[in-house]
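User: My collaborator sent over this chain with a note saying "see what the structure looks like." That's all I know about it. Can you take a look?
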Amino acid sequence: MSKIDLFLVAAYLVGTTLFGCSFYKKSKSGTSAFTKADGNIPTWVVGMSIFATFVSSISFLGLPGGSYSGNWNQLIFSLTIPVATWLAAKIFIPLYRGIGSVSAYQFLEDRYGFWARCYVAICYLLTQVCRVGSILLLLAIPINTMFGWNISTIIIMTGAITLIYAVLGGISAVVWTDAIQGIILIAGALVCAAILTFGMPDGPSQLFQIAAADHKFSLGSLSATLREPTVWVVLIYGIFMNLQNYGIDQNYVQRYMTAKSTGEAVKGTLFGGLLYIPVSLVFVYIGTALYAYYSAQPELLPDGIAGDKVFPYFIVHGLPAGLTGLVIASLFSAGMSTVATSINSSATIVFTDFYNRGSRKTENDRKKHMRVLYTTSFAVGVTGIAIGLAMQKIDGVLDAWWKLSSIFSGGMLGLFLLALVSRKPHRTGSLIGVILGLMVIAYMSLPAFHSPIHTYLTIVFGTTTIFLAGFIITKLFEKKD
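Assistant: Without extra context I'll predict from the sequence alone. Here is the result:
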């Protein structure tokens, strides 16, 4: 990188850390400040934080890589977001704010007992530490490819910087840095899209001619098979996955609680969720533009550079000095935002769902409470860094992450939906449903079983199994009573 690019990246990392740490005085005032910013976050910041939470380094590199190699099939996932945000606005946000708990899982204990809250909270924590490790590694790999920096060093450096401001600044630092990082990320994507569009040898129209001729704008197959990511498979997967994100994910629920009112939480959620649609469109467009750009100028792309590697190569070799640093900062923004969110939300779950629930000490013991939150945040961050370092030995990190998240979080949505629909869900029936659902999830996720159904549908079949089994058993017991 040029000196100006190095300066921009260094300035971004230092500036983010200092800005996040500036919230220390406010966050240490109590658990409410640390976990939900005392409910005083402006609506636009809540929305940008929700947007940044949804985006990660996977989206930043994966969407362009997917559309470069294939088509716009991934965009179908984004088009299901309005369904999830509408349901969140109508059902989930009023529910959580009505309960008043910063934890998403208090509702489950009210309906089933502590076993359900404990099960889902543990699943969530396992998912988040794996997520931290995966995101740090998936951020480090392209940086290593671009500049040759040591992967372990990048993981430790990025993880440590994020951990510092996440621990010291609490949720206020997380959401405000999210907002800034989201703006930087959007700016970086728009710059790349513009340079690719107007950098075509024969003008922008050449880009669309090449892409259209090779069917790069297609949304995918309309066939009825469940083995491939057809339009229907991605559509159903998107509905279930986004419903889980906006309906029961602690990362999102915590942001609902930072807003000043239920109405402001709804506005922020709709803004942040719907913003992802045009931004994801920009990312898939970048992949298509890269395809046309290098098809028209094949001499610019060395042999062996393909798929997810094309966009990082363009960032280093196709952007002018200064803009490379901006886009690298965007890439760090996508990863750091996700990691900081996972650290804070995990600490909140440990405190609210386990420590504070069973504690007999006085409610005003602020120092002890804050010590638990700080210690847990640090532990989650360090564990995530360690997992990221260990995952270097795994082939196919992204595939491994998808499988782990499917197993750990696949049973959560079904249990929530059953609790919402059933007037008085039967606890034994619900437990049986969870066991059956996890068996289905294991069958579809683990390579040893060679499931013929596409991995995207794991959450669909797992959730449906839990819901139907629990609902049927509940109805049978209602008739006996």
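A starting point for your reply to your collaborator: The chain has a mean pLDDT of 88.
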